[in-house]
């Protein structure tokens, strides 16, 4: 229970479904003051109090579990290391994979609980298939697609059949004070939302070149390649305009040479995506190529593709090019379905 | 439900509840000059006298406060402030104090220029008398105030309070003791103990929460925390909580008068609990002094378990106990008491406190004995991750 409206309603629904529910709030910050304050984060003292109050209203026991060390190692350190390696990690996805549905689930199972219930917006029915939420705007199946079969088998997502508006209305009906609490966005462990500064504090300034993809000419300098993301246009501070006057974008980041490569928008188009560490939960692993859709970043559009699973890698051949695809993000394969698109599997984008 | 957390708070005595309700129906500010004010004043003063009588103090030495925490803050900060002007900036405190004292001392060090000497404890949680002697020899002329609790709230170990008080008095240093856990559990006599200041709290002995007292010797200078109407010898301003004070006095009197009989009964029950816990978890470590401790206190470390996990599992079976140590944002911290006793971090995190009180029965002990083996097994599986 993060202290937000979704997990509060999820807990209440789990109780109503007949489960014996215990509320757990995760203490993820080594020093709670350093995480986001107010309603925007999920790890502050205020959020902890909100979660406790919701548990009181629902009438369930409530505990705070200290996962700060695990979170720091598996999510925060990983986040910094991924940027240092020129990739763009998704810490929410990593937190699901390593904390909520791993460390927390393992501890819960050892203590005698059967499953972890969260307020994620996704559907997980009796067929064991993970599907998009009915609320496509709030769908979180992308950040859950990293879960293995054994993790999904011990997960319950009670909100997938509801829109966010319905969840808020229900919270109000249930007398939960968090009903109108703003959604959390941004990254919970970056207190002021300034990712670039957060990384600079940890990785230091490492000046390097910004080069033109076509000519190889040095167009400017940067203070750390980690501060750039593929597809980024703003903040390049290039002195020389492109010959055609069109904006230039970050095309790639090369940590070895500490180089940021820029070029025209058209060069961002990607048709082939390869992913490491695939998981496949939407049925038996396909023996050959299958037609489906892939989503390549959180809140991105799904693109039709041919997906092949071979040699411990996932390969997606996109039927129309996608833009701004960054290594470190997840490629998630979906099977379109009128009853909710089904998550087939996912992998971490390597190239 | 098996309530095994009497050291956190214990049920109010029926006579205290009635005294509270009766007094709460009356109007009157004890500081007012008219008849209702005088009636309230009379109740407060009678209560003061009752408390003084059973605790070996003079009525004028009883300063009512809003809690034990406030009384501890008043003693430590107030006496420090009053004596700081004479060039004495050192505070002496044991390493196992309750946070009300511990954090007050830390605050004085951080914000008021206090120098601190922490008195160590031995493996049973007891401050050696020699440690105090050495500090007085070395720093006697720098010390503003010294404080050592009467009995530890976590592991129940009793301290050599009279010896400390005698040594401090010999060096002309006011000595305070937090006796919140002790009053009603063991004999406590303010005058006979020789302490300059002593903290007592209402809700630990059958009175209401929200009221406590500092017994403060007449000649001990103490700068107030709260300024206002000048109540309580000008040391603690604020309208007196007449119903709370009346109920507090009823509870203190009852607890002190029945102390011997209570201690014998509860200690026997506690010994039974200890035997049952050892039978259920043979590798459990019984912390604190096995003999010279609070009668209702049993404190264990369960190797391989987290205290937190055990608490959750026992709570799910309607058994209420405590890890004994403080929380920070709901997260149990490794006990500073266990760490001071030489325990490592794992042992300090693996502890659980069971405390018995005036409503405890053998049924409570049996409920714990029945639930504990399964809880320990599961908690061990969950382990320290």
From TrEMBL, chain A:
Domain tRNA-specific 2-thiouridylase MnmA-like central, first and last residues per copy: 197-263
One Pfam family linked to the record: tRNA_Me_trans
Stated name of the protein: tRNA-specific 2-thiouridylase MnmA
Catalytic reaction annotation: S-sulfanyl-L-cysteinyl-[protein] + uridine(34) in tRNA + AH2 + ATP = 2-thiouridine(34) in tRNA + L-cysteinyl-[protein] + A + AMP + diphosphate + H(+)
Site (Interaction with tRNA): 120, 329
The keyword Disulfide bond is assigned to this record: yes
Annotated source species: Phytohabitans aurantiacus
Residues involved in ATP binding: 26, 119
Residue numbers spanned by region Interaction with tRNA: 138-140
Stretches of the chain forming a coiled coil according to its record: none
Chief place of localization: cytoplasm
tRNA-specific 2-thiouridylase MnmA-like C-terminal domain: residues covered: 275-349
General function of this protein: Catalyzes the 2-thiolation of uridine at the wobble position (U34) of tRNA, leading to the formation of s(2)U34.
Protein's cellular compartments: Cytoplasm
UniProt superkingdom: Bacteria
Active site: 95, 188
UniProtKB/TrEMBL annotation, chain B:
Keyword Aminoacyl-tRNA synthetase: no
Keyword Iron applies: yes
The entry's keywords: Iron, Iron-sulfur, Metal-binding, Pyridoxal phosphate, Transferase
Start and end residues of each Aminotransferase class V domain: 3-368
SUPFAM superfamilies, sorted: PLP-dependent transferases (SSF53383)
The family this protein is said to belong to: Belongs to the class-V pyridoxal-phosphate-dependent aminotransferase family. NifS/IscS subfamily.
Official protein name in the record: Cysteine desulfurase
Species of origin: Phytohabitans aurantiacus
């Amino acid at each position: 229970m993060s202290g937000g409206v979704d997990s509060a309603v999820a807990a209440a629904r789990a109780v109503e479904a007949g489960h014996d529910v215990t509320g757990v709030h995760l203490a993820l910050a080594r020093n709670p003051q350093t995480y986001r304050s107010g309603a925007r984060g999920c790890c502050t003292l205020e959020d902890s109090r909100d979660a406790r109050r919701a548990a009181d209203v629902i009438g369930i026991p409530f505990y705070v579990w200290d996962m700060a060390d695990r979170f720091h190692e598996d999510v925060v350190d990983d986040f910094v290391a991924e940027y240092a390696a020129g990739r763009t990690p998704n810490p929410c996805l990593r937190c699901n994979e390593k904390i909520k549905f791993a460390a927390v689930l393992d501890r819960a199972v050892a203590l005698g609980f059967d499953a972890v219930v969260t307020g994620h917006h996704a559907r997980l029915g009796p067929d064991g298939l993970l599907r998009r939420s009915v609320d496509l705007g709030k769908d979180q199946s992308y950040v859950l697609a990293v879960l293995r079969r054994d993790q999904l088998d011990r997960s319950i997502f009670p909100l997938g059949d509801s829109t966010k508006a319905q969840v808020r209305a229900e919270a109000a009906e249930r007398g939960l004070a968090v009903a109108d609490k703003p959604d959390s966005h941004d990254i919970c462990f970056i207190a002021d939302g300034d990712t670039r500064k957060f990384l600079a504090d940890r990785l230091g300034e490492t000046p390097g070149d910004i080069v033109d993809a076509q000519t190889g000419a040095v167009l400017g300098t940067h203070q750390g390649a980690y501060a750039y993301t593929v597809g980024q246009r703003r903040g390049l501070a290039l002195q020389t305009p492109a010959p055609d006057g069109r904006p230039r974008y970050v095309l790639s980041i090369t940590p070895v040479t500490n180089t940021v490569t820029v070029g025209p928008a058209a060069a961002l188009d990607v048709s082939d995506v390869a992913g490491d560490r695939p998981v496949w939960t939407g049925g038996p692993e396909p023996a050959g190529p299958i037609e489906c859709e892939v989503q390549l970043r959180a809140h991105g559009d799904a693109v039709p593709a041919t997906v092949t699973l071979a040699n411990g890698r996932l390969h997606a051949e996109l039927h129309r090019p996608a833009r701004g695809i960054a290594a470190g993000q997840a490629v998630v394969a979906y099977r379109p379905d009128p009853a909710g698109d089904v998550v087939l599997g996912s992998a971490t984008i390597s190239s | 439900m098996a309530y095994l957390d009497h050291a956190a708070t214990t049920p109010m005595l029926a006579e205290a509840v009635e005294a509270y309700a009766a007094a709460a129906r009356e109007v009157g500010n004890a500081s007012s000059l008219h008849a209702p004010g005088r009636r309230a004043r009379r109740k407060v003063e009678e209560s003061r006298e009752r408390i003084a009588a059973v605790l070996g103090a003079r009525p004028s030495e009883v300063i009512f406060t809003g809690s034990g925490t406030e009384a501890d803050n008043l003693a430590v900060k107030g006496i420090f402030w009053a004596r700081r002007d004479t060039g004495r900036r050192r505070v002496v405190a044991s390493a196992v104090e309750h946070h009300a004292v511990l954090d007050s001392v830390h605050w004085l060090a951080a914000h008021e220029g206090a120098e601190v000497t922490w008195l160590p404890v031995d493996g049973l949680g007891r401050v050696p008398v020699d440690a105090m002697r050495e500090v007085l020899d070395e720093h006697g002329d720098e010390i503003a105030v010294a404080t050592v609790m009467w009995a530890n709230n976590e592991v129940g170990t009793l301290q050599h309070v009279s010896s400390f008080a005698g040594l401090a008095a010999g060096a002309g240093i006011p000595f305070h003791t937090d006796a919140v856990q002790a009053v009603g559990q063991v004999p406590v006599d303010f005058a006979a103990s020789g302490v300059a200041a002593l903290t007592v709290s209402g809700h630990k002995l059958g009175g209401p929460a929200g009221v406590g007292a500092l017994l403060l010797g007449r000649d001990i200078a103490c700068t107030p925390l709260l300024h206002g109407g000048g109540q309580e010898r000008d040391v603690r301003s604020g309208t007196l909580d007449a119903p709370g004070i009346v109920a507090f006095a009823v509870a203190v009197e009852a607890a002190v008068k029945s102390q011997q009989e209570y201690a014998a009964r509860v200690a026997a029950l506690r010994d039974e609990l200890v035997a049952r816990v050892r039978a259920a978890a043979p590798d459990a470590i019984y912390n604190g002094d096995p003999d010279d401790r609070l009668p209702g206190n049993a404190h264990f470390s369960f190797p391989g378990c987290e205290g937190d996990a055990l608490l959750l599992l026992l709570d799910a079976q309607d058994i209420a106990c405590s890890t004994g140590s403080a929380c920070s944002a709901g997260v149990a911290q490794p006990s500073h008491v266990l760490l001071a006793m030489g325990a490592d971090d794992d042992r300090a995190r693996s502890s659980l406190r069971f405390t018995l009180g005036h409503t405890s029965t053998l049924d409570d002990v049996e409920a714990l004995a029945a639930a504990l083996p399964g809880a320990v097994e599961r908690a061990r599986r969950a382990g320290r991750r």
